[in-house]
Amino acid sequence: MSAPADRGRATGHPATATTGTTATGTTAPTLSARTKWAARIAAVLIAILATAGCGAGVGTPAVGGEPATPSAAALESLRRLDTLVDAGKLDEAVTLAAGLVEREPNAVEIRLAHGLVLGQRDGFAAAVPVLLGALALDARHLPTLTALARGYDEDGDTANALTYARRILAVDARNGYGATLVGRALMEGGDYDGALDVLTRAQGSGMADVFGLMGRAYARQGEAPKAEQSFRRALDLDPRSLEATLNLGQLLMRDGRTAEGQQLLDRHKALSAEADAAQFAEQSSQVSGAGSQNFLVLGEARRTQGDLAGAVDAFERAAARDPNDARPLIGLATVAMDRRAHDEALAFARQAVALDGQLPLAHLLYGVELIRAGEGEAAEAALDRSRRLAPWQAREWDMVGQALVDIDQLDDAIRAYEEARKLAPTDDVIALRLGYLHYALGDFARARDELRAASERSADNGDLMLALALALDRLGDPGVDAALDAAVARYARRQVGTPEERVATFRIFEGGDATLARFLERSRAEGAGGTPAR
């Protein structure tokens, strides 16, 4: 059982405002070119290994220059490449990949992997001949075409990037990456109709950038409603899209919706600052002699931006550089909690405590995961140790409260959140947690009082008002209709998420389905939030 409305803490609960799952292919946090190469190596190897059953084991020989399937032995060797790259052993990785090419020269995937690791070590220019060799075997090989297009794009060679982007679209007109490169170039040349034709065919790619560029094209054509629809769709797919956030904010400002527009422009400023910090962390991790601290900073920056896989990679590198430092293990435990991989989080937290017993966060993470594991006495000892090492703030009590909710100890969770409220009396998340817990225990009057006070204090928080409507409905209070209208209006002002996403989040309020259905109907009638209907 989970409570709604989280703010990006290590919780796993649904989000209050701007968190969400980013669809495959959406805009990723800013990375250095070297890190992008590493990310592509991992992605390509995963794809290769995922198809290991499709003919693997045969090791098709080179016959007449035709593409071959990697052998089982080659696939096993490929598994080592990612490990070598992570460890910074690029010379070994290149030697391994080159040897595989010599043994199985007609395996396109092996040539691609060789090009990627070579580019990681020596730069993209060194990888080009190898990647072209892969294309000589299969001119329609999308991963290789994409590697070339991305490499040229990152190097600033627009002409060559577009050449390969067009080849990508010739193979797959719905490819989001190829469409964004070509569409952006067409827009820069003033051909907005041509750009929209290319981008529209790629809508099914799930890439936020596709819709962001469509929004820009519509805006330049004077079609503001279509532009707004496209920008909102981009933000549905990637709430952290800098371009879509800025462009939608500017569009709303021009349309006279100053409050909404300014909120988006303020968010763009905050996201830009985070991106700058992440870029600095990326660059710091690439300098010669980068140590554990560099990768710790990088891991935190990536986690802040929602790049959990990247954060794990950075924390693992930090741990490899200093096995006696407990902080990378704390980072790994925190990311595991974000992913709700609690057994994994417990293991990392236990290791962190064993390495350094003077870190209060290590004991806190250990304690909350022991709660989830049902080891109450051990959890109490760990949490008591954490409090003795450093005074707790609301965040620490919040984490304990969430763990107690997860094991259905709701009365104890309420006590934890009441401790949190003493330290942060105006915190909306804590108020919503308490309202939900009273509701879940059947005390609808207490839930109403808690939520009403908080919703009056925070005039733009739609979550509080929708939760209040649910409590009022269970009490038979006629004020439920006014609360639903207010919730719809608040969400419309904030323009975060879709009505369907909100309803899904609030399904945990048992017995509220009818009220949520009325909220959804009113939201759709008002066109509140999310992407307007076509």
Question: Which key phrases capture this entry?
Answer:
globular; 534 residues; disordered C terminus; disordered N terminus; mainly alpha
What does this structure look like?
This protein has 534 residues and is an all-alpha fold. It has 27 helices and no strands.
How many strands, what sense, and barrel or not for the largest sheet?
A: none
The number of helices is: 27
Shape: globular
> What proportion strand?
under 5%
- Unreliable sequence segments: 1-37, 51-64, 528-534
Helix content: over 70%
Q: How much is the average pLDDT?
A: 82
SS-derived structural category: mainly alpha
Number of strands: 0
Termini gap: 36 Å
| Rounded Rg | 26 Å
Order of helices and strands: HHHHHHHHHHHHHHHHHHHHHHHHHHH
Short description:
This protein has helices at 33-50, 72-86, 90-103, 108-122, 124-137, 142-154, 158-171, 176-188, 192-201, 208-220, 224-237, 242-254, 258-286, 292-304, 308-321, 327-338, 342-355, 360-372, 376-389, 394-406, 410-423, 428-440, 444-457, 462-475, 480-494, 499-505, 513-526. It is mainly α and 534 residues long.
Give the topology, please.
Elements: H1 33-50, H2 72-86, H3 90-103, H4 108-122, H5 124-137, H6 142-154, H7 158-171, H8 176-188, H9 192-201, H10 208-220, H11 224-237, H12 242-254, H13 258-286, H14 292-304, H15 308-321, H16 327-338, H17 342-355, H18 360-372, H19 376-389, H20 394-406, H21 410-423, H22 428-440, H23 444-457, H24 462-475, H25 480-494, H26 499-505, H27 513-526
Helix pairs in contact: 1-2, 1-4, 1-6, 2-3, 2-4, 3-4, 4-5, 5-6, 6-7, 7-8, 8-9, 8-10, 9-10, 10-11, 10-12, 11-12, 12-13, 13-14, 14-15, 14-16, 15-16, 16-17, 17-18, 18-19, 18-20, 20-21, 21-22, 22-23, 22-24, 23-24, 24-25, 25-27
